[in-house]
Prior knowledge:
B: mainly alpha
Amino acid sequence: MEKQLALQLRGITKRFGRVVANNHVDLDVNRGEILAILGENGCGKTTLMNMIAGIYFPDEGHIYVDGQEVVIRSPKDAFDHRIGMIHQHFKLVDLFTAAENIVLGVHEEGRYNLKEVNQRVTEIAGKYGFHIDPRKKIYDMSVSEKQTVEIIKVLYRGADILILDEPTAVLTPQEIDKLFDVLRRMRADGKSIIIITHKLHEVLDVSDRVAILRRGEHIATVNTAETNESQLTEMMVGEKVSLDIERNDPVDAAPRLEVMHLNLHNAEGLHVLRDVTFTANGGEILGIAGIAGSGQRELLEAIAGLQPQMEGDVIFHNPKKDKPVTFFHKSMKRVRELGAQGMFHDQNMKPVSFDGMSTAEIRKWVESGNVLFKEDEIIDLRDKTPLEIRQLGVRLSFVPEDRLGMGLVGSMGITDNMMLRSYRKGPAGFLDRKKPRELAEEIIRELKVNTPGVNSPVRRLSGGNVQKVLVGREIAFTPKVLMAAYPVRGLDINSSYTIYHLLNKQKESGVAVIFVGEDLDVLLALSDRILVMNSGAVTGIVDARHATKEEIGLLMTKTDRARKEEA
Amino acid sequence: MAQASEHKEPLIHLSKRTGVAPLRAWLIRLAAVALGLIVCGLAAMLLIERLRDNPGRIGEFYYTFIKGSFSTSRKFWKFLKNLSILLCISLALTPSFRMRFWNTGAEGQTLVSVLGCIAVDFYLGGKIPEWLLLILMFIAALACGAVWALIPALCKARWNTNETLFTLMMNYVATFLVSYCLVIWVANGSSSLPKLKTGKLPTIGNDYLLIILIVLLLAVGLYIYLSYTKHGYEISVVGESVRTAQYVGISVKKVIVRTMLLNGALCGLAGYLIGAGLDQSVTVNSVGGQGFTAIMVAWLAKFNPLVMIITAGLIQLLNQGAAQISQDFNVSGAFPDVIVGIILFFIIGCEFFINYQVHFRSRAGQEGRSVK
């Protein structure tokens, strides 16, 4: 059958400041085909699609629809050219019904007749095999139903070219099957469908052709029938890049953090962590690999006490046997509690009892260094808030993915951000800015943070400098466990190496480092072991010294179904 | 169908500025006020007959503005007194606004406080020593304000209700509560409570000096509280990002409730200054809309208690100047609102130009042109 071109992109380039998101991308889409766009995170898939849908305007390049050059300045322009996009994050009004959302913003002749709309929505749904009640309110709908509304919204506007941004990320396997059936029916109807995904299995399942993007560039477009998973993986992740990252062998690696059977459902009821079990050792870097949104964020947050609904256990091992008790991380209250439980002995192995002693006397004794732990401390962090975890003396540092939205306060200076962890210290109600200021100056000096001053808002700093401030603070806390989520995302090479170096130093000093990364080359070069996650479950833990990128790539993209088929 | 052969940029596009030099920002604001005053003058020439016939007298128009607050010592003290009450309510709102808790209920919180303190005066006045009465009135005012602010705070913390609507609605409840009490208290059915003879805050030097000093002290105290204490720090963190607050283990609910209690209690102080310091009576207009004006004062000052002294002064100057104009030029009572509205429009509107840069499409071969 002769293929007819629906959409052509020629030399599309988009820059955000100094970052080139898309670099002279050429792409062809035919009528009546499903084209998958495949690529790692941040390779420019969504940016490219946003330019077709009128969200962004390209800096350079041309777009042709049906052979005619077009200018798309807004989503409305895109609809005029019969292009519609279904975004990853739904854009629906919760209080409206499906039909009301669908007609929202459509300019039609004649009066607004909801009955007619309902009927047309039902017709479209019937034609492609959707199931939908046009009178149902959005807030009553499941994620999959909301997606259906988004798709019909686009079809209602007469789109012939449909772009779906990661449509399967939020769906269950059964819902994915249904969606793919619908897509196939639309293809039969002559529609062009562009689907963004990084699940290889789905690409092979549903698409006719696959276009691979890597670091903003179009690598190749291949026919799905003529390719396989390993070829696609290779094109997606690129040739082996040799990275010169130091990696020492772990010294005295002992279990530090044990995660057992962790399960978590998010606010939408999706099962985001499925029976996650692993152990992080002190003196070792445990890498976590996985496609974005596979549960990495939730896992770290659950460990840090930020996901109160989680089920399962997080056990913290503190190798304290025969080490002196200090007030650096234990409060007087906690020391008294542990003393009452008979957790301490003195240098002569005689049990310590604080009975009948005043606070000052206890303080004196403890500070003399003669009160020792009898056993290693074992603490379950389950059902603990971040504050409780800290009050238990668990030194857990967390560099979250969202640096300015969670790790730091954007409008505050470096000094005030240093205080986030420590401001409660000190007796009176007033803040002590002296020590945080010293720490801020130290971090600026040691990590070469480029900033106008300790009080200029961190929001104004570049990504690399923001990250140095955040990592610097978390390390200054002398952690036993350091969790870092995408710590080098958006950073230039030099800043990235600063961060790798810091993580390595922590590892050498016996910290259990958990490093969530997206660049497999870096993960393989830096980590000791790599845990691979997929759809909230652990699909494997591999030895980073011997594993290959392809091996990890397969573990990352294996879907539930593929796993089941194998079994 | 567009037939573009080359790259086309939209005619106007906006970009967010990354950091503006404070001097530049203040120059933009100053320019906005000047522009506002000029537009006010033009409006006056259109609307006021005397100026329309004789545009040369426009200078008189601007002079009258100043006259409203400064021509006599009585007017000046009145200006300071009004400024103080407005400032007090603005300060009360500041902690909650810093926390991004959009409390629009200062009017009601203050009114309920006036009611509470007058209720104590009404029932106990003359029966107990005056000093004890004043203390009880003070406690009643603070408690009433705090409770009125606490109700929406608890609902926000517990069920995440919308604080803006909730606090706004509480204003109406407060107004009707006052009407209800007046019906009971005033036997003749006029609903107008005569000035009580007891429960008068003592004065020093001038009738208003004590009130002015209390509010100035409060401004300084609140500045210290917000900038140098742990509580103030927690408020800033919660306001900036709830997720960051949770991440470092701050109990967001606790901070919300505590801060709203403070907010309410400070509204209570304002109510006490009105009830015991000035009126010794209560009507539904005891606060007279200042609870809403205070929102603007706080915003204009970017929630900085010390800058608020200036913005409260500016708003009060506008109000009194505009009132003087309507009196001297013998125009309708709505005219002052027009003047105040125009100037505020410019002041608030200029924030857009401080935060964003406007670019126009460059003409062929020309460099991109940008404004402001």
